[in-house]
Amino acid sequence: MESRQISAVHSVPGSIYWMFSLLILLGAGWAQRGHAADCPELLRHSFPSLQTGKPENLCQYQGKVILVVNTASYCGHTDQYGGLEALYRKYKDQGLVVLGFPSNDFGNQEPGDNKQIAKFCRLTYSVEFPMFEKSSVTGGKRNPLFAELDRRTGQQPRWNFHKYLIDRNGSRVMSFESSVQPDDKRLLEALRKLLDGRKTALRST
Q1: Does one domain contain both 115 and 24?
Q2: What is the value of pTM for the model shown?
Q3: Are residues 45 and 116 in the same domain?
Q4: Which of 24, 92, 170, 183 is the most exposed place for a label (fewest CB within 10 A)?
Q5: Can you tell me the distance from the alpha carbon of 166 to that of 194, in angstroms, rounded to the nearest whole number?
Q6: Quick one: pLDDT at residue 14?
Q7: 178 & 95 share domain
């Protein structure tokens, strides 16, 4: 009788532990569903990372100003990698993220595989901003993000290094042609306004 009582006493902490663990798991599930619900529709896409091949959900960038660029390693605009990386490093602490999408859609100027592209970006331009595996950005087989960006702006890339600037809410999208350099006054002015948007909202509340 005494031994059964001791066993019952010792089983209580275990039961509490498992109940506590279950609550944590349920809470995490609710948090994830809430996170997905809060994520702008434009960002509800996943793409494999260029470096790892693992799927990366764009919802992780919600609340940031996003610059989406289709890139290529052998283009007259390829040196824009340097300007994009400089832009990213300068403004990332203020909420900017640059997302690179290598594509071979234009002039066969991105013929390499994902490992070759990643190596080129790292060694030639020290790229640290997030990049994704090679995909199509125009035509019927384009990836869904670029299809939606085209739908919202009425402009699809006509060449490598087309740029889409997305506000923190994922609702406003601006389009810039390939010839617009990362340090172009028009792009910088639009970028700074979007970065300052949150500060203005905080001051007004």
Answers
A1: no
A2: 0.81
A3: yes
A4: 24
A5: 8
A6: 57
A7: yes
Query: What residues make up the domain containing 9?
Result: 1-38
Q: Is the pLDDT of residue 155 over 90?
A: yes
Q: Active-site residue 75, yes or no?
A: yes
Task: Show the DSSP H helices in the chain as ranges.
Answer: 2-38, 80-91, 114-125, 144-153, 185-204
157 and 61 within one domain: yes
The whole-angstrom separation of Cα 124 and Cα 174 is: 29
Q: DSSP letters of 52-82? A: T--EEEGGGGTTSEEEEEEE-SSSTTTTHHH
Distance from CA of residue 149 to its chain's centroid? Answer: 14
Query: Out of 39, 59, 75, 121, which one is annotated catalytic?
Result: 75
State pLDDT tens for residues 82-124: 999 999 999 999 999 999 999 999 999 999 999 999 999 999 9
In terms of domains, do 132 and 186 share one?
Answer: yes
In this prediction, residue 37 carries a pLDDT of 72
What is the bridge-based pairing of β-strands 96-102 and 163-166? Answer: unpaired
| Nearest by Cα to 157 from 48, 50, 75, 46 | 75
